[in-house]
From TrEMBL:
One function term, GO molecular function aspect: magnesium ion binding
Top-level taxon of the source organism: Bacteria
PANTHER family: ANTHRANILATE PHOSPHORIBOSYLTRANSFERASE
Any one cellular-component term (Gene Ontology): cytosol
Annotated ranges, domain Glycosyl transferase family: 73-321
Pfam families, sorted: Glycos_trans_3N, Glycos_transf_3
Gene: trpD
Organism annotation: Sphingomonas chungangi
Enzyme kind, highest EC tier: transferase
Name of protein: Anthranilate phosphoribosyltransferase
Amino-acid positions noted as binding 5-phospho-alpha-D-ribose 1-diphosphate in the UniProt annotation, renumbered to this chain: 78, 81-82, 86, 88-91, 106-114, 118
Function: Catalyzes the transfer of the phosphoribosyl group of 5-phosphorylribose-1-pyrophosphate (PRPP) to anthranilate to yield N-(5'-phosphoribosyl)-anthranilate (PRA).
Lineage: Bacteria, Pseudomonadati, Pseudomonadota, Alphaproteobacteria, Sphingomonadales
UniProt record, GO biological process: L-tryptophan biosynthetic process
Length: 331
C-alpha cells in the first residue's frame, strides 16, 4: 500500500527542497486528490514563486521519459491560455527554424483552451504522432526536428488530469510543463500569457540552469510575440540578461490585428500552415517571421532581429521548410 504523504502549508512561500519534495509526493501518487486540489489552489491564489515553479519542474524532469537531443537544440513553446485562438505560431516556427539549420525539439500537446494544439495540427498535416514519438531521437539527429508529445513523455502529469479538471483554472502545471522539455534543451523561446509573470518565469528558468532563453508575452496577454503591437521580453544567459520591448517593425514586417491570424479547428490550421510553407504571404507569415527571429537569436544563429526574419523567410521561400515537413511526415 502506498504511504500517504502530507503536503506543507503553502500559506507562505516554500523553500526549494520543501517544494520539490511536495511535488515529488504529488507526482508519485502519495497524496489524496482532495489534498492536491487544496494545495495547488492555495498556491495559485497566493501566486507561485520562481523557487516553487523551479522546484516543481525539477520534480517533473526527474520523472519524464527523456530523449537525446543534439547539442544546441532549442524548444519553442508557450503556456497557452491566452484566449486568442490564433493559428499555430510556435509549431510553424519550429519547422521554419529547423529548416534554417537549428535543431528543434518541439514540446507540445493537444489543445486545452484552443481548438487545435500543436499535436492536433501536426496530426492533421499527416504526422503520425505514435511513430514521431518512437523515432524522436532519430528524427532529431537526421532531420533536426522532432515533436515531443507531452502526453507521451510526462506520464506523471497524465495521472493528474482529474485533479486539474476539478480545479478548472490555470495552475502551476501550466507553467511547469513548458519548462520540462524531454530533450533537456537548455535554449528556449517560451511564451507566457501574462506579462506580469515574465520575471517569475525568467527567475525559475535561471534556477534551472538555462543556457539561453527569451521569455516573451504580447502586450495583449499573448503567449507569443504579438504581430498586433508590442511584446515584452526578458532575455537570459548567453544572449544577455536584460529586458526589452519589440514591435513588428523591428523585424521588418507590418503589424496586423489579431483577428487576421485567428485559427480554427485542426484541419483549418493545418491548411493555413501548409500554405504558409508553400510561400503564402500575409499576417500568418509575418507572425511566424517575428517569432522565428526570436528563436534564431536564442539559438545563437544571429543577434539581429531583421537578420533573423530574413533567415526564416529564406527557409520558407527556397522551399526548405516545406520539404522538411514532407520528409518529417514520411520519416
Amino acid at each position: 500500500m502506498t504511504e500517504v504523504a502530507l503536503l506543507p502549508d503553502p500559506a507562505t512561500p516554500l523553500e526549494f527542497e520543501t517544494a520539490e519534495a511536495a511535488f515529488a509526493d504529488i507526482l508519485d501518487g502519495r497524496v489524496p486528490e482532495e489534498a492536491i486540489i487544496r494545495f495547488i489552489t492555495d498556491l495559485t491564489l497566493r501566486e507561485e514563486t520562481a523557487t516553487e515553479i523551479a522546484a516543481a519542474a525539477r520534480a517533473l524532469r526527474e520523472r519524464m521519459i527523456e530523449v537525446k537531443a543534439p547539442a544546441g537544440a532549442i524548444d519553442v513553446c508557450g503556456t497557452g491560455g491566452d484566449g486568442a485562438h490564433s493559428l499555430n505560431i510556435s509549431t510553424a516556427v519550429a519547422i521554419v527554424v529547423a529548416a534554417a539549420g537549428v535543431p528543434v525539439a518541439k514540446h507540445g500537446n493537444r489543445a486545452a483552451s484552443s481548438k487545435a494544439g500543436a499535436a492536433d495540427t501536426l496530426e492533421a498535416l499527416g504526422l503520425n504522432l505514435d511513430r514521431a514519438a518512437a523515432t524522436a531521437e532519430e528524427s532529431l539527429e537526421e532531420l533536426g526536428l522532432a515533436f515531443l508529445f507531452a502526453q507521451t513523455h510526462h506520464p506523471a502529469l497524465g495521472k493528474l488530469a482529474p485533479v486539474r479538471k476539478a480545479i478548472g483554472r490555470r495552475t502551476i502545471f501550466n507553467i511547469v510543463g513548458p519548462l520540462c522539455n524531454p530533450g533537456r534543451v537548455t535554449r528556449q523561446l517560451m511564451g507566457v500569457a501574462r506579462t506580469d509573470y515574465l520575471g517569475t518565469v525568467a527567475r525559475a528558468l535561471d534556477l534551472l540552469g538555462t543556457e539561453s532563453a527569451m521569455i516573451v508575452a504580447g502586450d495583449e496577454g499573448l503567449d507569443e510575440l504579438s504581430i498586433a503591437g508590442g511584446s515584452r521580453i526578458i532575455r537570459l544567459g548567453a544572449i544577455g540578461d536584460r529586458e526589452e520591448h519589440v514591435v513588428p517593425g523591428d523585424v521588418g514586417v507590418e503589424p496586423h490585428p489579431l483577428t487576421a491570424i485567428r485559427g480554427g479547428d485542426s484541419a483549418y490550421n493545418a491548411a493555413a500552415l501548409a500554405r504558409l510553407l508553400q510561400g503564402e504571404a500575409g499576417p500568418y507569415r509575418d507572425a511566424v517571421l517575428l517569432n522565428a527571429s526570436a528563436a534564431l537569436i536564442v539559438a545563437g544563429r544571429t543577434t539581429d532581429w531583421q537578420e533573423g526574419a530574413d533567415i526564416a523567410g529564406e527557409a520558407i521561400d527556397d522551399g526548405s521548410a516545406e520539404r522538411l515537413l514532407q520528409r518529417w511526415i514520411a520519416f
